[in-house]
Amino acid sequence: MAESGACRLQPHGCACESLSPTDELVSRLHFDAAEGRIWLGEQRMLLLHNSTMGVLRQELIEGLGLDRARGLITRIGYHCGAHDAELARHLHPQGASADAVCIGPQLHMLEGVARVEKVRLEVDQEAGHFLGEFNWHGCAEAEAHVQAYGIGSDTVCWQQSGYASGFVSRFMGRPVVFREIQCRAQGAPHCVIVGRPAEAWQDTEDAPGAEADLARLRADELSLGVAARGARSPLDDQAVVGVSAAFNAVCHMVRRAARTQATVLFLGESGVGKEVLAQALHRIGPRAGGPFVAINCAAIPDELIESELFGVDKGGYTGAMATRPGRFERAHGGTLFLDEIGILGWTAQGKLLRALQEREIERVGGTQTVRVDVRVVAATNLDLKREVEAGRFRADLYYRLNVLPVRVPPLRERREDIPVFLNHFLHRFNQRDGRRVTGFTGRAIDALLAYDWPGNIRELENLVERGVVLASDDGAIDIAHLFVGDEALPARWLALQRDGSLRLQAANDPATPEVDGTTSAHGDSERLARQVQALLTGQATPGAAARLSLEQLEAALVRGAMAATGGNQSAAARLLGLSRAQLIYRLKGLEAASDG
User: Fold this and answer.
1) How many CA atoms lie within 13 A of 566 on its CB side?
2) What are phi and psi of 449, to 5 degrees?
3) In the predicted model, is pLDDT for residue 76 greater than 80?
4) Which of 287, 325, 376, 428 could form a disulfide with 311 if both were Cys (CB 3.0 to 4.6 A apart)?
5) pLDDT at 272 over 80
6) Alpha-carbon torsion 103, 108, 112, 118, what sign?
7) 208, exposed or middle or buried, with CB in 10 Å at 0-12, 13-18, 19+?
8) 481: Cβ–Cβ under 8 A, 6 or more apart, which residues?
């Protein structure tokens, strides 16, 4: 454990030695009185009376109750912190973690929240270690609470604790929970907060664990697979997780729908978690004791979909040797989840409409109707209204299903959830495969947050699993372990350095080194670097993209790293984020290609 005030970081100047607002931050604060706007970087800000926030706080406590108000205020702070972290990321695109983390306290002071004093800060992204302790002097949130309620026994800086959690979680790539352990509202001379990764709180004597803190960041009991009754979710590995405002809005809709029998239609791209939410809807509703039956309509041939949904009587068609109940009957008393319902054939759509309206079905080849008590939940990644206009989906079925539409946003619209998912999947795959991967490097986290995620949560899960497979035990997942397929990083984040290392930054970042034609020991790397640079800046000649293959880029990285480290394989492996064995494997491949 480092001494008080120590800072574990890479060899750069440490901004956290002085926590006064820097000139760089102040220069990004702009007032436009003519238009009535205030800007901090690219974010629009408001100048409010602290007493106004105190009144709002009091109204929330009196109207919602202490616990719900605390959760709401904490979530507001979390999202403010996550957004401010984007500004910090632009200020320190390649800086050490501690430098970037310290921008949060500086923003706190610039925004008039409190004077922040750093007591201790330890940051090691690759090991997943974080320990931060800060003093808040003259905290505005505590003052507003004391004015309304006087001195009490509880800590009250909920919004600012949430802010710190959101800010640091973005940089660590995992949930970091800050707790206030001393508050002016308790009569203390100043407020004190301590931050650790969520799982680290479980090992301390002064706190039983971070479950309650994480629960406040999530709107309801859907998250972490913990039902309202406190029972462990049957989902376990597919637990619903997230902290973003978009995720919480979906959770509110699911929770309200769960108390009813209304048909729910989940809308959203493939991989956003529609089936997991459907399972959560079933689990927390009155039908939890009944079965949850799912069917993917796109995976069943058209000629079999009716028998799968409604069952078949003996002799109903050639080969039907026995009566078989369909999904509707098997879901009796529970929930039937129809995934990819937009693919359903026209005939099956008509029978499904009757089943929804009459609550009865007729098996294929049967003559008797069967009453069913089923709640139908559907999902699709198609625009059903356009499908209706195109004549591919029945309008009457669309309106029957569209009772309560719930749009699940794609991952690129809820980036605050990415650190939560990274932590969730890392722990799952470490436990499943018996691995000891510690976390993610800073540049890997930047890449994951900048990536567009066309495959959404499913793609993120696959990339983390890939990283766990390729990374070394007691090591961290780096870019080289993640983006080894056909995934395309945003151009503004990819740059190739002279030494062959990969750097994440904007293509027009003034810190990007200029590549000239000087001959060097690794001319191939420089030639490829010029090609990459031209592609990133849009100055490439036609056909340049085709001439630059992934194999060439990997070869340049490996050769550049070996040249930069004087042929030291261990040092080159560390530079590339690989194990020594992985580097040797690639070197042998390059030698074989040269001999060929």
Assistant:
1) 0
2) -75, -25
3) yes
4) 325
5) yes
6) negative
7) exposed
8) 444, 466, 467, 470, 471, 577
Question: Counting beta carbons within 10 angstroms of the beta carbon of residue 405, is it exposed (0 to 12), middle (13 to 18) or buried (19 or more)?
Answer: middle
Vertex 371: Cα angle to 366 and 375 (nearest 5):
120
Report how far residue 196's alpha carbon sits from residue 176's, in angstroms, rounded to the nearest whole number.
5
Per-residue confidence (pLDDT) for residue 312, from 0 to 100:
81
Other beta carbons less than 10 A from residue 365's beta carbon: 15
Stated as kind and residue range, the H or E segment containing 104 is helix 103-110
User: What phi-psi label fits residue 478: left (phi over 0), alpha (psi between -120 and 50 degrees) or beta?
Assistant: beta
Q: Shortest CA distance to 557 belongs to which of 441, 460, 470, 478?
A: 478
* Tokens (6 digits) for 155: 């800590």
Mean pLDDT of the chain: 78
What domains, with CATH codes, occur in the chain? 15-216 (3.30.1380.20), 245-411 (3.40.50.300), 423-595 (1.10.8.60)
Q: What share of the chain is helix, strand, coil (3-state, %, to 5)?
A: 50, 15, 35
Tokens of 42: 């690219």
Rg (CA), the chain: 28
> Distance between CA 195 and CA 201 in Å, rounded?
9
Give per-residue burial for 81-117: e unless 16+ CB within 10 Å, then b.
bbbbbebbbebbbbbbbbbbbbbbbbbbbbbebbebe
> Is residue 559 within 8 Å of residue 522, measured between CB atoms?
yes
- What pLDDT is recorded for position 467? 93
Calpha distance 108→112 (Å, rounded): 6
Q: How far apart are CA 70 and CA 212, in angstroms?
A: 11
The label of the residue with tokens 């529970």 reads 334
CA geometry: angle 361, 365, 366, nearest 5 deg: 50
545: its two tokens: 């993209």
Structure tokens at 484: 């080894």
Residue 579: partners with Cβ closer than 8 Å, 6 or more residues away: 472, 475, 573
Give the burial class of 548: count Cβ atoms within 10 A of its Cβ; 0-12 exposed, 13-18 middle, 19 or more buried: middle
Contact in structure between 235 and 219 (CB atoms under 8 Å): no
CB 251 within 8 A of CB 217: no
Q: Which two structure tokens, joined as six digits, stand for 456? A: 């959404």
Asked whether the beta carbons of 279 and 392 are under 8 A apart, the reply is: no
Q: What is the pLDDT of residues 295-342, one digit of tens each?
A: 998 888 877 888 888 888 765 565 556 677 889 999 999 999 999 999
Chain centre distance of CA 456? 10
